[in-house]
Amino acid sequence: MDRIPFSPDELVEAGTFPSATGVMPGAVKFSTPISPKDNYFAAIKKENPLWMIKGGDTAMFAPRVVPDNFARVFVVERQMQTDEEKEFVATVGSPDMFGIMWEYVPVTGGSIVRPGLPALDDANNWKDVITFPDLDSYDWEGAREANIELFGTEQALNTWQLNGMFERLISWMDFENAAMALIDDEQKDALHEIFDKLADLYIDLAAKYKEYFRMDYFYFHDDWGSQRSPFFSLATAREMLVPPLKKIVDACHDMGMLVEFHSCGANAKLVPAMIEIGFDVWNGMSLINDKAAIWEEYGDQIVIGFGAADIGLVGMEVTEEAAIAAAEAFVEKYGPTYSEKPVIVGAPFGPAGAAFNKVIYENSRKMFAGLEAAE
């Protein structure tokens, strides 16, 4: 991308972006020379972005038309889940795309499958137990019409697929059975079949999002580790998970969509598998992963996502002064090599987030244009 001279007028607030929920205010919109979406793609593709990707440049959309989102109380759209609906999922439960019941746990803010009643006890029996959903039966057009104003924004729009390969297997088998199946020679062939069919389903799902919601990138979620280490070895990841996930990523790229990967756990040892899959970004869990060290080793091969906590901005009471100082230091450290080793950084909560985003934009914008950093 050609360099565009910086103008102080860019820092003039030009309103806000539409809020997906209609409840919280939308992110502040600056008078940027190109859209945040175009800059996002330029950054991820290493095509000389004009500024560092910051909070508000992207937006999330997770419609209730996909049963997983409702069952996991992760609906992010105009028709948000009501308190009554959340209570229903907490007390009665709600089925996901495969008819598996999930229960909402308010204290954790998430849902779990009812434990101790696995639908599948042996992967070899999956064809007798697991019924794949018919995506064409969902009211995609209705979901599009209900949220139409969200799809013309200048932000890069993403959707989360919460249950990836391993987490989907856990939902069917419970954790210990799923973990064992990954390394059980008598179940591996069946798992290859399952994961390949899941890959086809997720490709079809991504295509629906692209067709109806002009989705820019697929945010694929699959937790691979605990607070101390991965759940499985790199060799197991390469054998069981790399082929189907690469199939998904390749298809999304063919559709013009990027793919970000969210995987909680201390998963630095599995980054080589993420690179082989072709994920554009890894947004790993904050604090338990040394993001700076991972960026040093792998940042030229996969974009690393930093949370605010990764740069010392922990909790809800971060001051503007602390946020500004952290933003300045972040640009100074990661800005000079951004075109070759881009990163993504999340803003802290509260008023400090706005100050953080402004400094990230101004300082990186000036740096990339060859000017002095903001005073």
β-strand number: 12
Give the termini separation.
27 Å
Low-confidence stretches: none
The helix-strand sequence is EEHEHHEEEHHEHHHEHEHEHEHEH
- Fraction of helical residues: 25-40%
- How much strand? 5-15%
Whole-number radius of gyration?
Answer: 21 Å
Form type: globular
Q: How confident overall, as mean pLDDT? A: 94
Query: Strands of the biggest beta sheet: in what spatial order?
Result: 3-7-8-9-10-11-12
Number of helices: 13
Structural class: alpha/beta
Q: In this structure, how is the largest beta sheet organized?
A: 7 strands, parallel
Structure, described:
- There is one protein chain.
- By secondary structure, the chain is an alpha/beta fold.
- Helix content is 39%, strand content 13%.
- It has 13 helices and 12 strands.
- The protein has helices at residues 36-44, 67-71, 83-91, 126-129, 140-146, 165-173, 175-183, 188-213, 234-254, 271-277, 291-298, 320-334, 351-368; strands at residues 13-16, 28-30, 58-60, 94-95, 101-105, 110-113, 156-161, 217-221, 258-263, 281-284, 303-306, 343-345.
- A 7-stranded parallel beta sheet has the order 3-7-8-9-10-11-12. A 3-stranded antiparallel beta sheet has the order 4-5-6.
- A hairpin with a 5-residue loop joins strand 4 (94-95) and strand 5.
- Helix 8 (188-213) runs parallel beside helix 9, helix 9 runs parallel beside helix 10 (271-277) and helix 12 (320-334) packs parallel to helix 13 (351-368).
- The longest helix has 26 residues, at 188-213.
- It starts with 12 loop residues before the first strand and ends in a 7-residue tail after the last helix.
- The model has no long low-confidence stretch (mean pLDDT 94).
